[in-house]
Amino acid sequence: MKTRIGILLSLVVMIMGTAVYGQGKVYKDGSIWQVTFVKTSSNMSDDYLTSLKTSWKAVGDEAIKQGLIISYKVLQGGAANPNDWDIMLMTEFKNLGAMEGQDAKWDAIEKKVLGGDDNMKKLNESRVSIRTIYGEKLLREVVYN
Questions:
Q1: CB-based burial of residue 51 (10 Å sphere; 0-12 exposed, 13-18 middle, 19+ buried)?
Q2: Rounded-to-integer distance, Cα 31 and Cα 94, Å
Q3: 103 — pLDDT class (breaks 50, 70, 90)
Q4: Which one of 39, 40, 63, 78 has the minimum C-beta count within 10 Å?
């Protein structure tokens, strides 16, 4: 009798496991976010954010117009410790494929918005003293069904 109950219980567990597995994922893949983590130097956050408005935001606005990205965001918050970032730059792409093969379009946008290579070099050099890039991540948004 105990053997039959054990077998029956095992079958019920296997059937339930199969039913749950058959339901599939409870979420689907969403958009792709390219995230950059930045640490600004002491008392330089406002200067860096002002610099972003005339460059990074302007490039983002043009990229939206041309359909290269969906959106972008800048998040600011206090660092949790001395080795933590305080500004996060986020750019949203429709999918991974939307990121591929677009270098020429991005170059044209940067040239249009920022000027030539000399202007872009000066901008990058001016930011060296006010910020440190801590790294980048490519993340996929999770959308629940």
A1: middle
A2: 5
A3: very high
A4: 78
Tell me the per-residue pLDDT of 11-22, one tens digit each, with 9 for 90 and over. 556 666 555 555
Among candidate residues 33, 101, 89, 93, the one with its CA nearest the CA of residue 67: 93
CATH of 27-144, one of 3.40.50.980, 1.10.40.60, 3.30.70.100, 3.40.50.720: 3.30.70.100
The secondary structure of 84-113 as a DSSP string is S--EEEEEEESSGGGGTT-HHHHHHHHHHH
How far is residue 68's CA from residue 108's CA, in Å, rounded to a whole number? 12
- Residue 98 CA to residue 77 CA, distance in Å, equals 30
